[in-house]
Design a protein that fits this description.
Layout: H1 5-24, H2 28-39, H3 44-68, H4 74-98, E1 102-106, E2 109-112, H5 113-133, H6 151-168, H7 173-183, H8 188-214, H9 220-240, H10 246-270
Antiparallel strand pairs: 1-2
Helix pairs in contact: 1-2, 1-3, 1-9, 2-3, 3-6, 3-8, 3-9, 4-6, 4-8, 5-10, 6-7, 7-8
């Protein structure tokens, strides 16, 4: 791993991935793929695999203190997590390898698998940023109220999030947390903790599909370094979360993600192939 300026920025950004997860219970996965592609020059398809491991292991570490403080609902994690895990594994093992390297061409411009993944990722970034920026002034749910599970919707949402996670390597916390609040009637703090456990399980199991296919292409040193820095970031984020107003931080992060998403869309459409290495 050569230590040029981009790599140093990449190492700093790797810590931010964890800080984001520790502070707001999500958002870290939105940073991971762009950091790997643009700063570490990883192929976009391989970057989605690396992201599953980095986000999965970081979320697992972040879930431990949440579990010890009673902020994880295991029943909900299982009901939502099982279809999500199956969907991620099938997507990584079957769907992603089946997508042709060049999907179609417009004149002399090929629309490649890498370009499609980066554009889908950027669209999800823009969608995530909107949900972070929007002011949600909803009443906190009463944790003693009887829990009513909307099983069909939870299973469907779990499967959809699983496919998206498999395709773009994002943990999908910005999709999971609202689903847990609305469909499982979880209080917000429990939804954040439960989301971390679901993200960890489905990301790590999804990554095993890539290990079986692409272990020879993987830079395990880079993967290890970025993961360790993200985990350090989670501990920093957990400490900062006690001192920083979460709502203001989430909104600021949302604007950053929006700018990043729009940048990726413009860069990939104006300079297709620039991120493929």
């Amino acid at each position: 791993m050569a230590f040029d300026l981009l790599t140093i920025f990449g190492l700093f950004a790797s810590t931010l991935i964890g800080i984001s997860l520790g502070l707001i219970g999500g958002g870290g996965s939105i940073l991971t793929v762009p950091v790997l592609v643009y700063l570490f020059k990883v192929d976009p398809v391989l970057a989605t695999a690396y992201s599953l491991f980095i986000v999965g292991l970081s979320s697992l570490v972040g879930a431990f203190p949440k579990y010890r403080s009673g902020m994880i609902d295991l029943k909900t994690a299982i009901v939502f997590g099982i279809p999500s895990i199956i969907a991620v594994f099938v997507t990584r093992k079957v769907l992603v390898p089946a997508i042709p390297n060049t999907i179609f061409s417009i004149g002399d411009l090929p629309f490649t698998k890498a370009l499609a993944m980066m554009l889908l990722f950027a669209i999800l970034m823009v969608a995530a940023s909107v949900s972070m920026i929007r002011d949600k002034k909803k009443e906190e749910l009463d944790s003693t109220a009887p829990r009513v599970f909307n099983y069909p919707m939870i299973l469907l949402e779990g499967s959809v999030v699983g496919v998206l996670t498999g395709l773009v390597g994002a943990g999908g916390g910005f999709l999971i947390i609202p689903a847990l609040v609305m469909l499982s009637k979880l209080p917000m703090k429990q939804a954040v903790g439960t989301s971390l456990l679901i993200i960890a399980a489905k990301s790590l199991i999804g990554f095993t599909g890539d290990v079986l296919e692409n272990s020879d292409k993987m830079d395990w040193t880079l993967l290890g370094v970025v993961t360790i820095l993200a985990i350090i970031g989670i501990f920093i984020g957990n400490q900062l979360s006690k001192k920083i107003d979460g709502a203001a931080l989430k909104k600021g992060f949302g604007w950053f993600v929006l700018v990043m998403g729009l940048y990726i869309i413009i860069k990939e459409l104006a300079f297709p192939g620039a991120s493929s290495h």
